[in-house]
Protein: GNAT family N-acetyltransferase
Amino acid sequence: MLTVRAARLDDLGVIVKLERYCFPPEVAFGRQRWHYLLSHAKGRTLLLHDDREQLMGYLCLLEHKGWDRLVIQTLAIHWRVRRQGWARRLLEQVIAHGREQGWGAVRLEVADGNEEALPLYRRLGFRAQQRLPDYYGRGQHAHRLVLALREPAASVRARKAV
Ligand SMILES: CC(C)(COP(=O)(O)OP(=O)(O)OC[C@H]1O[C@@H](n2cnc3c(N)ncnc32)[C@H](O)[C@@H]1OP(=O)(O)O)[C@@H](O)C(=O)NCCC(=O)NCCS
Structure:
């Protein structure tokens, strides 16, 4: 059984290590980026640990008040515990919390060839909003996906009018 807790700055080293294993070098966030995310960014990082306190995964989330969106910066699960529903659970936690707090949507970017992540996001209801050519480098296209957390005001008005 894994446990979830909020990341602290002293988790930096192990997070960067797992990031290097989970993403190709041209895509992986470096130490500096993670330092910023853990110390200054508005948002939070959730960590998954096993019973020996080994890092088994993380999800980093930023809050963009101006856009009324939560933005998932990165998500990765250690290969030893993949396909056991842990990424889905972390995302469900973010979605439920976002709804409770009244956020409009959750947004993320995903590489077109990511055959593990695309079905995960689709099954949770994320839909493509924008194509991002060469987003991860030349020929490495991506899509921006969005999950609305609130109904658009127009459809709420239309329903109330019936
Ligand atoms: C993508 C990733 C986070 C998925 O983590 P996970 O904990 O293994 O995913 P889950 O067990 O929660 O899977 C939930 C659903 O996602 C889909 N999925 C996950 N892994 C899959 C795979 N290898 N092949 C096909 N579908 C997959 C399935 O629909 C799955 O549901 P199911 O097991 O009931 O069929 C993990 O593979 C990973 O860390 N990959 C490397 C980093 C990465 O690409 N991160 C995403 C960046 S956008």
The domain at 3-161 is CATH 3.40.630.30 (Aminopeptidase). Strands lie at 3-6, 43-49, 55-64, 69-77, 105-111, 127-132, 142-148. The CA atoms of residues 15 and 55 lie 8 Å apart. Helices lie at 12-22, 31-39, 86-100, 117-123, 153-161.
